[in-house]
Amino acid sequence: MDRRKFVAGLSSVGIGMPVWAATTDKTDASTAASATSASAPAGKSPTSAAPTHVTADVADFVVRTTWDGLPPDLIELGKKSILDSLGLALAGRRADTGSIVLRYLKELGLGHNAPDVKAASVLGTSVRVPPRFAAFANGVAIHADDFDDTQLAMNPTRVYGLLTHPSVTALPAALASAEVGHRSGRDFMLAYHLGVEIETKIAEAIAPRHYEDGFHTTGTCGVFGSAIACAKLRGFDSHQICRTLGVAAAQSSGLRENFGTMTKPFQAGHAAEGGVVASDLVALGWTAAENILEAKRGFFEAEGGGFDPAVMERLGQPWTMVTPGVSIKPFPSGSLTHPGMTLLQQLIRTQHVRAEGVVQVRVGASRQMLNTLIHHQPKTGLEAKFSMEFCVAILLITDGKASLNDFQDDVVRRPDVQAMISRVDFYDNPAADAAGLDKMRTIIDIRLKDGRTISGQADYGKGSPQDPVTFDDVVEKFQGCADYAHFPSKTAAQVVASVRDLEGLEDVGVLIRLLRRT
Q1: Does 47 or 203 have the greater pLDDT score?
Q2: Reported pTM
Q3: Fewest beta carbons within 10 Å, which of 13, 110, 443, 486?
């Protein structure tokens, strides 16, 4: 039985699951409605068609939302994710992808730094390129270490934490567009928040088959966030926004099989770039389908087999960043490792666990978590980010202080690290499965040489809305990323101050200039 039939069956017996509606375009909707009405048995209501105006509703929401319509708590949450992302953009330059991207831009004949109002900054460098390429480069850098914020899902049909990384696509596109347009901090934040809201609602709405069958939602749904951010900054009307979404959908791509390779951050960077390209073309008169989300041959149907219409009716009610929230990572690894890492860090500190005293660590999780954390014997830093075995091993070896410096190829291959990995048993635990997909239940049992067994259980990690980080926590993380990137500490402090008062900046370029290398 496929997923949609299974979920529909649950709904029919009264279990509160969303109905993943098959999508349709307006012509098909009227035809289907007429046919259904004609054939419906007497005394029974015709089956209702899926919504036929989702794309237009999204566009109308974007057009009518102003700065004054953003809740104060949303603005403050956004500042944390923005500062977090800027730090990761600096740190990401040290990844192998950072140097390759700069070489790629140079081979395209870009980055000569000629004075040009249409050039945007590649953060952490002196390079300035057309906005689409700046969005791409910064998107790759932010996601290079898999350390960026994560959209959370509370629906029991979804794997908690596996929807999308919202800032990595919306922020680089908004930043590049705001820079070349000399837009204010408020304009930039408004566009960023609209982009995040639309992409996260789309990621939540699409039927779970989308992710389960291998799509990488940061790439596939993230492109809509970057497109919306750029469209808002350009002042597009509803029809232009619909066309921008149509062009963005043509670039929707990304596959989970690429996790643990350079192509995972490429997919994020490509989505950030795609929104800029879409808005650039529409500004010149480019056309596209204006019902691309709900159409029979559109995004939701083609990539998911349907969607939950109720989600798309809740734009800004509440904003996703507020509820259910966005997680900011304390560890540079896949989000599914974080409950276990948070728990193990606590056990190391409170129970004085030391690597040399460990015989074995058993880590129980759900089948869904095992299907994502697929690198059980990692040999590279990228593979290590999706290896529960490595994440446990490195925390034990570092006394609970795993950092960017630890997720490196040479560290992963060290004999002591590989030996500790061999002592970690990552297995499917029935209790974790029974907890439901909407929890990342992780059960840890540590067997020690002195005969003790220390155990614990966690459903959420540090940085989640259930255990949130403060702005000062993010400042500490940003400064750590800046240090890792050998970025001047004095300038880093100025960046923090600018983000604290981002709504007061008349030109967001003031912040961006601080993030350049001279």
Answers
A1: 203
A2: 0.88
A3: 13
